[in-house]
Amino acid sequence: MTARSYALSDGNSFYCSCERVFDPSLEGRPVIVLSNNDGCAVAMTPEAKALGVKMGSPWFQIRDLCKREGIVARSSNYALYGDMSRRVNEVYKTFSSVVEVYSIDESFLDFSDVPDRSALAQEMRRTVKQWTGIPTRVGIGPTRVLSKVANNLAKKRLELNGVCDLTDEALRRQLLPLLDIEDVWGIGRASAPKLRAVGIETAADLRDMPPRQARAMLTVAGEKLVRELNGIHCDDLELTPPVRKGIAVTRSFGKPITTVEEMMQATGFYATRAAEKLRRHRVLAPSIRVFMHTSPFREGPSRSVAKTIGFPSPTWDTRDLVSAATRATKLIWANGFQYAKAGVMLDGLTTPEETPRSLFDAQDPSREALLSALDSINGKFGRGSLYLARTGHNPAWKLRSDLKSPAYTTDLRQAPLARA
DNA sequence: TCTGGGGTCCTAGGACCC
DNA sequence: TCTGGGGTCCTAGGACCC
Questions:
Q1: CA–C1' distance A371–C12 (Å)?
Q2: Distances (CA, A) of A173 to A167, A199, A203, A205, A382
Q3: What are the mean pLDDT values of chain A's consecutive 10-residue runs (420 residues total)?
């Protein structure tokens, strides 16, 4: 019997590697790729990193450094990276029948029942490099978290030659103490100091933490993390990409916004873009949320506010979104602040196929009509449960899903439907 | 002067209902 | 009639990810 194994493969400095594939003269030179409006560095090669560029370094701060040291800076080209990512994943599929695309440059592969995992991983690296030009590194482990940890070690420790297999427990005991707590997947800048304060400094310390304590400090995500570090499997691979749950359009302003008219212009424009995205993805939004906040980098009074406005029925209509966005902006506006960023967010999206229109139009449908509508959509969602409800000022029945009450659908069949 | 954008998940707390 | 407890719904906000 062979143990379950996951491999996490990622492209080294992925965006920069893509740029190098199309411009081989960049090979061996320090390269960085800049964010959308060339605001900051979002990818860098080890050569650039060695010269002092950090992830997220603002362009205006490193411009001189780049000029002085001959660092090549490129604007990002997401169409190119997306195409490259697709090609790399095609190669992965020849090495494992189960591939979960986790992000543009990372994929989880099922490596269970592979006799020599490291050898297969090395062969995969060679093939990806040969067919696409992209260099990769591979981490292997009995859980996804451990494969992620392994990938990190493969990155940090050059003697591992791009592949680290943590399936063996003895090797884990040896290597986990070498990984700082900040480098563990799921531990960010808020949790790391909290953990360090109680003496948790490395991945090994976190592994040995009582799961209940981890839950108290880091919520359920922390408890899962501890279990997975111990080799106990908690999350499986997502084989089919989940339906889009939210859409956001947000921007930082070149210069701060101080008047409500300007802000309404901005959020109205974001709402227009959001409506385009809804129609492109063929999903409907039940509500829209507008937020704005001041710059965290500047002195002065700070403010961060948000407002959600619901629609009578889910919509992708530009006018609905823009008028709600404008209304929300007025409602939360306060004078005397320098707003640096704002945006609109759409949550709880539904699709026309999964949620029959008639359900939303029904003002006072019969019990039979509601139950048959429920039957027609039942089981079409991957997770959670479904129920019908009407709430707030909205007279129409709504379809909702809620992970917290898995038995609700059954309850609904037995309980009399309330008439508001 | 200039510090990204787009996602997911979790939780607290108020409103409301029975 | 009064009260409390328990449940759900919804919003806001935080943390994390790439």
A1: 33
A2: 11, 18, 10, 11, 37
A3: 86 97 95 90 95 93 95 94 95 95 95 95 98 97 96 94 95 96 94 94 96 89 93 80 85 89 93 90 89 87 88 87 93 90 90 46 48 47 37 41 30 30
A219 class by beta-carbon count within 10 Å (0-12 exposed, 13-18 middle, 19+ buried):
exposed
Q: Per residue in A268-305, is it b (16+ CB within 10 Å) or e — as a string?
A: bebbbbbbebbeeeebbbbbbbbbbbbeeeeeeeeeeb
- A105-162 pLDDT, tens digit per residue, is 999 999 999 999 999 999 999 999 999 999 999 999 999 999 999 999 999 999 999 9
Entry pTM: 0.81
Q: What is the distance between the alpha carbons of residues A134 and A154, in angstroms, rounded to a whole number?
A: 16
SS3 assignment, position A242: coil
Give the H/E segment covering residue A373: helix A367-377
Pick out residues 46-105 of chain A having their CB under 7 A from any atom of nucleic acid strand C. 102-105
Asked if strand C comes closer than 7 Å to A35 Cβ, the answer is no
In degrees, rounded to 5, the angle at the alpha carbon of residue A35 between the alpha carbons of residues A272 and A332 is 40
First-to-final CA distance of chain A: 59
Distance CA A65, CA A60 (A): 10
The reply to whether A192 Cβ lies less than 7 angstroms from strand C is yes
CB A31 within 8 A of CB A44: yes
